[in-house]
């Protein structure tokens, strides 16, 4: 299974040319599809995402995507195109592989999906032990989470859960300047942010073979 990984497009999806986006069986967007999280921005992203040629299209919300935090689940379900999968502390099985997604993160200014330690512990406890692909917006602590000031701002609770579950792939974004990939402890980690710390789109999608 060929998986294409992107994150943190911040309304710049409309400027991504077809030739820049590799083909694959699955495309995953790990959150921050918008800047302000309003309905206009969200609809624009969903129209673009649903028209991609990838057979399976999965995304989660990020800290900029307020609409997904404010609306009820049944309202969100009406917004999502039939050929798009939205995950919010939920999962889906595709061709025998288990995918799980969560937008929750440690407090970060006044953005969306800020969760307390207790709330994050409850959210991440739901991640099934048989998860193959984990999608979160925030990184785990000290894994592709370093800011331009040299601070590690990932989630410690998430790191402990990933250590326990050992998914084959863990994709996230959020910390733009930490874009990249690394492998250890049987998991391949990918920070798939397409924009840099100045919100300039310069990073490329990352492909992972599952």
From TrEMBL:
Alphabetical list of InterPro entries matching this protein: Calcineurin-like_PHP (IPR004843), Metallo-depent_PP-like (IPR029052), UPF0046_metallophosphoest (IPR051693)
Pfam family, one: Metallophos
Calcineurin-like phosphoesterase domain mapped to chain residues: 1-177
One MF term in the entry's GO annotations: hydrolase activity
Name of this protein: Calcineurin-like phosphoesterase
Organism: Polaribacter dokdonensis DSW-5
């Amino acid at each position: 299974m060929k998986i294409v990984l992107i994150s943190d497009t911040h309304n710049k999806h409309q400027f991504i040319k077809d030739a820049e986006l590799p083909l694959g069986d699955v495309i995953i967007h790990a959150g921050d599809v918008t800047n302000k999280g309003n309905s206009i921005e969200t609809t624009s992203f969903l129209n673009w995402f649903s028209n991609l040629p990838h057979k399976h299209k999965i995304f989660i919300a990020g800290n900029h995507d307020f609409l997904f935090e404010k609306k009820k689940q049944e309202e969100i379900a009406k917004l999502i195109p039939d050929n798009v999968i939205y995950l919010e502390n939920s999962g889906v099985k595709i061709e025998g592989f288990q995918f799980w997604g969560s937008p929750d993160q440690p407090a970060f200014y006044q953005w969306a999906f800020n969760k307390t330690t207790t709330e994050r512990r409850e959210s991440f406890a739901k991640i099934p032990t048989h998860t193959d692909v984990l999608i979160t917006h925030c990184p785990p602590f000290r894994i592709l989470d370093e800011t331009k000031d040299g601070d590690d701002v990932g989630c410690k609770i998430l790191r402990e859960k990933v250590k326990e579950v050992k998914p084959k792939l863990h994709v996230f974004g959020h910390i733009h300047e930490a874009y990249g990939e690394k492998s250890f402890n049987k998991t391949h980690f990918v920070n798939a942010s397409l924009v840099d710390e100045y919100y300039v789109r310069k990073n490329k999608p990352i492909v992972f073979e599952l």
